[in-house]
Amino acid sequence: MGTPTVVRCDSTTSDVYFSGKALAEAFERTTSVWTNGTGVYCMTAQEDNACLEVMVRAAIEKRVDFSRIILMRTGSNFDRPPPGVTDWEHLAVLDQNGFEIAIENIYRAGMLIVHGIIVGWDETFDKGIPAKNYIGDILGSLGGQPDFGLGSITGGRGVSLGGVDGNTGQGGYESHFGQGLLDYKFA
User: Fold this and answer.
1) Mean pLDDT value across the chain
2) 11 has which bridge partners?
3) Which of 54, 55, 30 is nearest to 40 (CA)?
4) Which end of the chain is least crowded, N or C, by CB within 10 Å?
């Protein structure tokens, strides 16, 4: 057993939970393709990616500052079995016992971050910290050019309220946020 560490890597998602060596390796390759070889897949994260997509849409609507979002995730189970264990045994038989450990780890790490923000609010965080990297989704919805994937679908302009050009009849997206339905569509 190694020392616990914090890693920076990429997660991938699916609408369906997956487990097993073949599927995990397929998602590793998919992550590499979708990110032009820059993504390093390390875990699945169904709910985190869904929450982050909601934050992208809320940022388009000027309801959140996307540059202030921190996404933290702990590993609670494994997407593939250890050597000598079949995919079936890993999924259906073994108890990985990771949930309680993951909850404790996210609490400990999160408390340090919250403490740092509170202590440094006036000097550092109140005004925000300018990003040194691309911030946004794979489509470039918030402006700028993603350094992964196919690049911005809006030419780096970002999506504004009511569409790329601010007019739902002419833009690339249509938003119904104020009506209780968040639905973006390509025009």
Assistant:
1) 80
2) 43
3) 30
4) N
